[in-house]
Design goal:
Elements lengths: L6 H4 L7 H4 L28 H11 L6 E4 L2 H12 L6 E4 L6 H8 L3 E4 L10 H7 L4 E7 L11 H10 L3 E5 L21 E6 L12 E4 L2 H10 L7 H10 L3 H23 L4 E4 L6 E6 L2 H10 L5 E2 L9 E5 L3 H15 L1
Parallel strand pairs: 2-3, 2-4, 4-5, 5-6
Antiparallel strand pairs: 1-7, 6-7, 8-9, 9-11, 10-11
Helix pairs in contact: 4-5
The chain binds pyridoxal-5'-phosphate.
Pyridoxal-5'-phosphate binds next to helix 4.
Length: 342
């Protein structure tokens, strides 16, 4: 692990916050220059989100020491670049078509991006990944289920990469809750270089409070804790997530509704003459290939329905990505598509 760290991070003397230095309960806190008048948010938040971690630990059956939270998964991914990749020198492997933020974050951090395009069936081109890595590769980012294609990575492909390559492998499982395929979470005990990223933004319905989760080795959690801003998850987000994670039955009901709607929407979309293909999806969206995606996109936009144009992404010519909405929203989409089809 030490070899994979950036030189400056190896030497980093982390900031020690007031709440790091005194973690027990006290009667009077005069250590953090806070406003002493209680309004519910006048104190700094817990830098290590202990309560929330206990809840997530219970839910996921993962030890608390193997959990790290970021201000959205986007922060987790950004911190991974900043921890392991030397700007202007190191490179990252990503597999387009995939979540566009990986490249943006690499560009912001001045990390070379090596793109290994997915196979035509959207599976990983493992041979190509193994052949393009070099001595400056530090990170491989995989997305499963993948955005925008909706398919999952074969676990055997992931294990093949983990067994052959000794870099940081980050698997972004933002959509895993929607999938009936197995998560790679159980592999973190076997591979200390593996980071599994999940999020409360999707199935748990908390995109607005920005909580991304990394499940990984304690070694990596400790390093990310040193690199992150001290109070990266604010008090309100910690409280709200803690409260909402208690209601697993609501989460399961919503997942159920989304699954039903996805099946319905898939069936309806396939009936359109201008739909060439609805790709199978393990996520809460459908990648749909139209005969004329630009036309459909523009028409839908004018009718007040916004979908995601992915037609410029490699292997996604004429494709729109459509999130599964409520029954009412999906019906509206179908009505508008019928108007356009004529
Ligand atoms: C694959 C993938 N990862 C991560 C994210 C962002 O997650 P978060 O809201 O936790 O930053 C998204 C958002 O669309 C996504 O599609």
């Amino acid at each position: 692990m030490e070899n994979l760290l950036r030189g400056n991070i190896k030497k980093l003397q982390a900031y020690s916050s007031a709440r790091d230095e005194f973690t027990k309960q006290a009667e009077v806190y005069l250590d953090a220059n806070e406003n002493p008048f209680n309004n519910g948010i006048n104190r700094y938040p817990d830098p290590y989100q202990n309560q929330l971690k206990e809840r997530v630990s219970d839910l996921k059956k993962i030890a608390k020491e193997k959990i790290f939270f970021g201000n959205g998964s986007d922060e987790v991914i950004d911190l991974t670049f900043r921890t392991f990749c030397e700007p202007g020198k190191d490179n990252v492997i990503i597999c387009p078509p995939t979540y566009a933020m990986y490249k943006v974050l690499a560009d912001i951090n001045n990390i070379e991006v090596k793109e290994v395009i997915l196979n035509n069936d959207f599976s990983l081109n493992t041979n190509r990944i193994i052949s393009v890595v070099n001595e400056n590769t530090k990170l491989i980012i995989l997305c499963s289920p993948n955005n925008p294609t909706g398919n999952s990575i074969n676990k055997s492909d992931l294990e093949l990469l983990l067994s052959k390559l000794n870099y940081i492998v980050l698997v972004d499982e933002a959509y895993i809750d929607f999938s009936d395929k197995e998560s790679a979470l159980d592999l973190i005990d076997k591979y200390p270089n593996l980071i599994i990223c999940q999020t409360l933004s999707k199935a748990w319905g908390m995109a607005g409070i920005r909580i991304g989760m990394a499940f990984t080795s304690t070694e990596i959690v400790e390093i990310l804790n040193k690199v992150k801003p001290p109070y990266n998850i604010n008090t309100l987000s910690q409280q709200k997530a803690f409260e909402k994670l208690r209601n697993k039955s609501l989460y399961l009901d919503i997942l159920n509704m989304i699954h039903t709607q996805k099946r319905l929407l898939t069936r309806k979309l396939k009936e359109f003459t201008n739909v060439e293909k609805v790709y199978p999806s393990d996520a809460n969206f459908l990648l749909v290939k139209f005969t004329n995606s630009k036309f459909v996109f523009e028409k839908l936009r004018k009718k007040g329905i916004i979908v995601r144009d992915r037609s410029k992404q490699v292997l996604c010519e004429n494709c729109l990505r459509i999130t599964v909405g409520t029954e009412k929203e999906n019906k509206k989409l179908i009505i508008k598509l019928k108007e356009i089809e004529k």
